[in-house]
Specification:
This protein has nine helices and twelve strands. With about 260 residues, it is an alpha/beta fold.
């Protein structure tokens, strides 16, 4: 499996490169960076003292013309450029980028008609199993419980709530037969009035080097159920991304998520 990595100079990009180099049945064929600066032209494995023969480049078309799968954990603007090239070259994508608007999400769906894409706010396998637990809880605590989603990430994260928190909210809303856009509450300040029991509340914490923490609270009278997932480092995302890439090798086209990956 010939893999290219986007955002090759970032923290996640470097971990993906190291994992691809170490995994069986995978070959690193490209390392992309749109704003690599002085890193452009350097060997993609230099940060671990390993010569790979793959130079960091901004030349998307050259890299994707030799790739089977692109792993993209960057930002929406970068992902959109990669989408266009992936469509041209028939390259499959694992997208872990978050913060897309409605039009950008439509472009991802459109591209998936001609190539296969796994699009997930979190590629962590354990987080996606946690989503299954949250869905089960939501169906059983549909009445008499207030629902809040609390997420925490490092100070450098640029979007809030996190994509994973929104996925959690969508999972809960679907289980309750609601539309998240109609019942989500993203901020409370001042005289807000009594809580509407049909809403799903979101709170975001930003600070330090928190990789990712998500807690769902089902709050009833005299009791509270909490389901929490904590990511201690980025390795779960990396391992999940490689699992998703292997899944894509069996797909011709279509838009998938990590639940699809876990079911196969």
């Amino acid at each position: 499996m010939r893999i290219a990595v986007a955002g090759a100079t970032g923290r996640m990009g470097r971990m993906l490169i190291e994992a691809v180099l170490a995994a069986d049945g995978t070959t690193l064929v490209g390392a992309l960076s749109k704003d690599g600066g002085s890193a452009l032209g350097q060997d993609a494995g230099a940060f671990i003292g390993k010569a790979t023969g793959v130079a960091i480049t901004a030349d998307i078309d050259t890299v994707l013309s030799a790739s089977d799968v692109l792993l993209d954990f960057t930002r929406p603007s970068g992902t959109l450029a990669y989408l266009e090239a992936a469509k041209r070259h028939g390259v499959k994508m694992v997208i872990g980028t978050t913060g897309f608007d409605a039009e950008q999400l439509r472009l991802i769906e459109e591209t998936a008609r001609s190539t296969a894409i796994v699009f997930a706010s979190s590629t962590s396998v354990s987080l996606n199993v946690t989503l299954q637990l949250i869905e089960l809880a939501a169906k059983n605590f549909s009445k008499g419980y207030d629902i809040e989603v609390v997420e925490a990430h490092h100070r450098h994260k640029v979007d809030a709530p996190s994509g994973t928190a929104l996925t959690i909210g969508e999972t809960i809303a679907d289980a309750l037969g609601r539309n998240l856009a109609d019942c989500a509450v993203f901020a409370r300040e001042g005289m807000t009035g009594a809580r509407d029991s049909s809403t799903i509340g979101f709170s975001s914490i930003r600070g330090g080097d928190i990789v990712g923490e998500h807690t769902v609270l089902f709050i009833g009278e005299g009791e509270r159920i909490e389901i929490t997932h904590k990511t201690l480092n980025r390795l779960p995302y990396v391992n999940g991304a490689l699992r998703a890439a292997r899944f894509l090798m069996k797909q011709e086209s279509g838009l998938f998520d990590m639940q699809d990956v876990l079911r196969r």
